[in-house]
Automatic annotation (TrEMBL):
SUPFAM superfamilies: Chaperone J-domain (SSF46565). Residues 85-114 have a biased composition (Polar residues). Residues 3-67 form the J domain. The chain crosses the membrane at residues 149-174, 180-202, 214-236. This is DnaJ domain-containing protein. Residues 13-40 form a coiled coil. Keywords: Coiled coil, DNA replication, Membrane, Transmembrane, Transmembrane helix. The lineage of its organism: Bacteria, Bacillati, Bacillota, Clostridia, Eubacteriales. Residues 122-140 have a biased composition (Basic and acidic residues). Gene3D superfamilies: DnaJ domain. Residues 82-140 are annotated as: Disordered. InterPro entries: DnaJ_domain, J_dom_sf. The keyword Transmembrane helix applies. The keyword Chaperone does not apply.
Length: 251
């Protein structure tokens, strides 16, 4: 036997309005408490049965003398099973929530410990880097002082080297011009030397006496005109290298 009055939480002499309000209250409450859809439907079905039974109390033949509603044993068994399942479900949810809270607390504690260890390691690394920077600064300071003294000593020599750089720059420019001109001049001198030597040999062949001075001069001009461009290029490279060395020293 199941008392529908207790299910809805009303008195046996309650009015229809009170029964309706109690029904709506129980439905709203069970929707908030029960998450499982199947369990929720079972509870709602039970509340619907109680509400319909109490509303049709005058027409129903299910009431006994004590005004207690009588339902079939199978329905009673189902309702008891539903109640037991709901209680078990709620207890399981509570135990799970407690377990989750405990695990969450443990995770928070472990994360805090890990973060503290990381902070300590970072501080140690920062201290090591700071010490290394200070050590490097200490090591560099004597070197920097020595370099400054050396620069001061070399300053007069750098000032004297400036006019030399200017003179060498002018000489290099002239050598470049002469190098271009010498290439053309060397070709002309080669032609002239060969021509003079050939003419003199022709004169000797025609009966004139040989003049070795003319032949030596022609040969000398020929050799000089042949090697002159190479000599000028070598001189130009020497001046350029010397000028670059002075520039590196001064600047």
């Amino acid at each position: 036997m199941t008392d529908y009055y207790k299910i809805l939480g009303v008195e046996k002499n309650a009015s229809k309005e009170a029964i309706k309000k109690a029904y709506e209250k129980q439905v709203e409450k069970i929707k908030k408490e029960v998450v499982n859809e199947k369990r929720l439907n079972e509870f709602l079905k039970l509340f619907d049965q109680a509400y319909e039974a109490l509303n049709s109390l005058e027409e129903s033949q299910l009431m006994d003398k004590n005004e207690t509603l009588i339902i079939q044993p199978q329905e009673v068994q189902k309702e008891l099973e539903v109640n037991n399942k709901s209680k078990n479900y709620i207890s399981r949810n509570n135990s799970k929530s407690k377990g989750r809270n405990a695990s969450t607390k443990r995770n928070d504690v472990s994360q805090k410990g890990v973060s503290k260890n990381k902070d300590k390691k970072n501080k140690l690394n920062d201290n090591k880097e700071e010490k290394a920077r200070k050590q490097k600064a200490i090591e560099k300071s004597p070197k920097s002082n020595t370099k400054q003294i050396f620069d001061l000593l070399m300053l007069p020599f750098k000032i004297l080297a400036l006019p030399l750089i200017a003179i060498l720059s002018v000489i290099i420019l002239l050598c470049q011009i002469i190098n271009v001109v010498s290439w053309i001049a060397s070709k002309l001198l080669i032609i002239a030397a060969i021509s003079v030597g050939a003419i003199h040999l022709y004169q000797v062949k025609t009966g004139q006496t040989i003049n070795y001075n003319i032949l030596i001069l022609a040969a000398s001009v020929l050799l000089a005109s042949f090697f002159l461009p190479y000599i000028l290029r070598f001189v130009l490279k020497v001046f350029e290298k010397l000028n670059n060395v002075l520039k590196d020293f001064v600047f």
